[in-house]
Write a structure and sequence with these properties.
Elements (H helix, E strand, L loop, with lengths): L9 E5 L3 H13 L3 E5 L2 H10 L4 E5 L7 H11 L4 E6 L4 H9 L4 E4 L4 H65 L5 H15 L4 H12 L10 H4 L7 H7 L2 H9 L6 H9 L20 H16 L10 H10 L7 H56 L25
Parallel strand pairs: 1-2, 1-3, 3-4, 4-5
Helix pairs in contact: 2-3, 6-7, 6-12, 6-14, 7-11, 7-12, 10-11, 11-12, 12-13, 13-14
């Protein structure tokens, strides 16, 4: 089977002189080109827009809109169309100006056939190279977009994996301390609310949230006899307990994405007046995330029930935190905390409790859906078995994808 030769390129010839226009078109048709003619610039612009026109050969000077006007409009509307300008003797300066404005070549009128053919071949060759370059660029841009989307998806997966790992670590600590009140998650919510009230957003807000979540991770290194002791700690036991900020810092400070949270973990027991531990930092020496956490942690500790006492009211807790501004707490953080208001703080706690109640229901819904799918699958198998000559393929049973991440911590 013979290959079909490509269609000849469409060339638009523009000249107000009928004889020049007709002679050029006849000569180019004999050379195998598909020629279209126009007697003015406006007509030429319309014709060029009707069908792909790789090349326009236009006279420089025409009544009404001239060749320069046509060139500028073609550059704007049809940038892939090449333009060769025809000019008379003594007007070469204008022709050179056209080259600056985007024309690919110019010829003196009347052009010799050999010069015209060479100019056309150069123009079309240059256009083919430019079109190939644009196609390559678009293909490259598309690949970059695809790879960028894949990278973003991978980064989201990594971020989710990191977050789930942190939640698992905190859940492990909660289990060790027999803590079931979701303390760590509530503290993260309180901390984030205060930070947002202070205008903290984006990556900084996420890092402060991680620091709040991991604040007591160092308690993994505290002996059970101290950590789980039901009674009052001795001075030596307090020395052991006070090591947990430094232990937590040493555990996570080498992990790049936990660099800032590690600073919060190390500083979360410091006080505004310098009476905290382990480094006796004061004021703005303490990381802003740790200063915010200190208020959030105190609120949750005071308003949560403990085996040895009932939690106090939010009103009492708010008043106590307000009283300790400028001593235990950063006064700027306390102002942001007070701006949230008692109703806003109570709402945060209620929302956390609602999420906790929804998890068993979500798990039950997943089990119900899984059972229904299994029932329908069994029904399909029964129907297939009843059809002669039909063999059902073995398929893996659907598996539940419910994951629970309830992370709490001892205050």
């Amino acid at each position: 089977m013979e290959a079909i030769p490509p269609a000849p390129p469409r060339i638009l010839i523009v000249d107000d002189d009928d004889s020049v226009r007709d002679v050029i078109s006849v000569l180019l048709r004999e050379e195998g080109y598909n020629c279209v003619v126009a007697n003015g610039a406006e007509m030429a612009l319309d014709l060029a827009g009707e069908e792909e026109t790789p090349l326009v050969i236009s006279d420089m000077k025409m009544p009404g809109k001239d060749g320069l006007w046509l060139l500028e409009n073609l550059r704007e509307r049809l940038p892939d169309t090449s333009v060769i300008m025809l000019t008379g003797y003594g007007d070469t300066e204008s022709a050179v100006d056209c080259l600056r404005r985007g024309a690919v070549d110019y010829l003196l009128k009347p052009p010799k056939l050999t010069d015209l053919i060479r100019a056309i071949e150069r123009a079309l060759a240059k256009r083919r190279i430019e079109m190939a370059r644009k196609r390559y660029q678009k293909k490259l841009e598309r690949k970059v977009r695809d790879r960028t989307a894949e990278l973003r998806s991978a980064l989201r997966d990594i971020a989710n994996t990191y977050q789930n790992t942190l939640l698992a670590l905190v859940a492990a600590l909660d289990a060790r301390e027999h803590e079931t009140s979701d303390h760590s998650q509530r503290v993260v919510s309180y901390t984030s609310a205060i930070a947002q009230r202070m205008g903290i957003q984006g990556k900084e807000l996420e890092e402060i949230g991680r620091g709040a979540l991991l604040h007591d991770i160092g308690k993994i290194g505290v002996p059970d006899a101290v950590l789980l002791k039901p009674g009052k700690l001795t001075p030596d036991e307090w020395l052991e307990m006070r090591k947990h900020p430094d232990i937590g810092f040493q555990m996570i400070q080498a992990i790049p994405f936990l660099d800032t949270p590690a600073s919060i973990v190390l500083s979360h027991q410091e006080r505004w007046d310098g009476a905290g531990y382990p480094r006796n930092l004061q004021r703005h020496e303490i990381h802003i995330g740790a200063r915010i956490f200190a208020v959030a942690d105190t609120l949750d500790a005071m308003t949560s029930d403990r085996p040895y006492r009932k939690g106090t009211t939010f009103t009492n807790a708010i008043q106590e935190i307000k009283r300790c501004a400028n001593t235990q707490f950063d006064p700027e953080v306390v102002r942001a905390f007070l701006d949230i208001g008692e109703e806003g703080l109570i709402r945060i706690k209620q929302e956390m409790a609602t999420k906790k109640l929804q998890l068993p229901q979500a798990e039950q819904d997943a089990h119900d859906a899984e059972a229904e799918l299994a029932r329908l699958t069994d029904l399909d198998d029964d129907v297939d078995a009843a059809v002669p000559g039909h063999s059902a393929s073995d398929e893996d049973e659907p598996k539940s994808a419910v994951v629970r991440s309830v992370a709490g911590n001892k205050g």
